[in-house]
């Protein structure tokens, strides 16, 4: 164990001092940790700080929350590109390491830029605490390591990102944490699959790539009734469209790489929840094991959050229109998009009594027509290869529209049986609709659809 591990998470730079004195919101009560001794607890909750002022609306919080202005009077959040922090005296260093005084120590677990991103995202999701990680997958791993132990079970949707399934089945299983899978949309199936050992329910809603949905309210009620936690991967919606904690979920997972950044610039993740589970247990894993977010990436995410609300609205408008267009195209056999009235869970979108997300989001998946099942992959690949503007990449949430073939990319490591159980066919194409002119996106896909049809005649 390195010496820097004996103290906990710290606050940000005091806006009234050029030194590294802790801010008011960093002065949390010490946390007792058997391995590390008494350490200062993490700053939690949606704090706005002196540079932010009152912040009530979502767009305002996305712009103003988390910046603790330094004595330099900067208007933009600074990047604290430092591995460690200097103490005013040996006595102050001793107090920090003994857990008697909060403050920054080492950027693996205490960095003001990262902390600003955490505060801002917690404010947007309505959580008490947020812990940033090096990637979305690191956020899931840290959550499971912090909250589960050997003998526990996860109950998860079959409709998960392929790497999440691999993490559960190939790696967590080695350490005695098993996973059971059910259909995301079958609430009776969720209830029937619960066991006494089940401790965590894990979902994506909407799912990747079929945009299936489940009622977070109903699933959270089931989790509470059975003494389980509910974790929701909110990557597709972000807090601009859906806030799972307000609907009863215990934990929200983010791949910040996607819409939180919004421009495909960097990789990161986050977990949002309460002060105990996230602020202590999940944070303890990140502090000790080190899947930490870099200050530079945190700064990019802060900048991304400033335009999140506007971007998610624009993504949704483009995606909705594209889904309508694809649904009428003769070269398409099926379109998966929550905003379509034909979507099985369309009642969960909008402003109705059961709605949980404000609009359909930016992801549209569709199945291309193929004369025979064994030619479906060729038809899908021909379409993708014929596009000229769309970016062929598995990432999503970018201002640039991206296109991918899930069966051979995002879910390619799954067995054919597992893909079939998840409903991912060889004909399926996922489009993460960007912010280009809609007519240009349609024209590129029309070119691909024409080429696909010609290649399979």
UniProtKB/TrEMBL annotation:
Residues 1-58 are annotated as: Disordered. Residues 18-58 have a biased composition (Low complexity). Its cofactor is pyridoxal 5'-phosphate. It catalyses: O-succinyl-L-homoserine + hydrogen sulfide = L-homocysteine + succinate. Its EC number is 2.5.1.-. Belongs to the trans-sulfuration enzymes family. MetZ subfamily. Catalyzes the formation of L-homocysteine from O-succinyl-L-homoserine (OSHS) and hydrogen sulfide. This is O-succinylhomoserine sulfhydrylase. The gene is metZ.
